[in-house]
Amino acid sequence: MGEPLKAMYNEHFLRSFGEKVRAAYGAFQTESFIAASMDDTWEGLELKARMRRITQTLGAHLPNRYEEAIDILFAIDETCVGFPYLFFPDFVETFGQADEHWALSMKALERFTPKSSAEFAVRPFLLSEPERMMSQMEIWSTHPDEHVRRLASEGCRPRLPWGQALPMFKKNPAPVLQVLERLKEDASLYVRKSVANNLNDIAKDHPSVVLDTARRWKGIHPHTDWIVRHGCRTMIRKAYPEVMTLFGYAEATESAALTSGEIWSAMPSVLPIGGICELRYELRIREGEPAHVRIEYGIEFIKSGGRTSRKLFLLSDKTVPGGTSLNGTRTHRWSDLTTRRHYPGEHRIALLVNGHEVAFTMIQLEETPTA
To answer: Is the pTM of this model over 0.85?
Structure first.
């Protein structure tokens, strides 16, 4: 197993960074900066906590005046590029939220985001002054740099992973959609991915709003079509009827089922936690017009309290001629993950076509044998 990501913040990194600061600010005490950052609690700090520790310690070792401290960071930021330097925008978040610092903080976030990312740092500004900050996001949405345009979208995602939630946009996403409108044909895939992820966030609270947006946007530009499809992915997984129709997925009719001859199996049917099974399916699409089909399997995972929770896994998503026979196999690993722990018991595995279950099978998961 590789080193945890937090290990990138170590004495070597801090010393190298400290020397960069000292070159621009001769009074900087590198050894004191390292010692204060890596105190007795350092080993127990996770990634974000280490980043904040560096930010706070840096603030204590730079001039007290925010303007002077930012000038020093401006002097070295061209050599401080990449994920580890997220503490540059974090410095703005921590020390630059006072009203008198607004213009300089916006300048700093715009300047730092191409070198790391300011998507987390903008969120406290949004929470404290949403209207003012969203006006800034609209300005950034027209910026020539794709990183700054992406910030306009990524920074206001209602459910940004690792970021503070934005409850006001969970409740009313209209201000966010105003920014996304400006970015819906963006030439940069980096930006388009963010717009799509933002739409997907909004769909979790306001599916009808995203559906209406998708209907308006679909067909106006190839870039926009990509955004719409990716932004509706959660609703597609949940097989919202209107969304399935919008994207042309075939439906069963009163006179003809979509599929027939379904065969669905898991081998072996009994296996230990950490084991592997092979899933195999066969089915036939109804005769007639070509059909757009999405084939998935859903596992009802047993949770610690005995309840179950379904997780879907994609097998295929394509358009096929009427009458086509489809088959395939998939290896599924039952190893514990950081996001999912397995528990012994009988697990139901369903085969789904366009969101509708067409077959199921069962496997028995057992405790891993001890040596």
So the answer is: yes
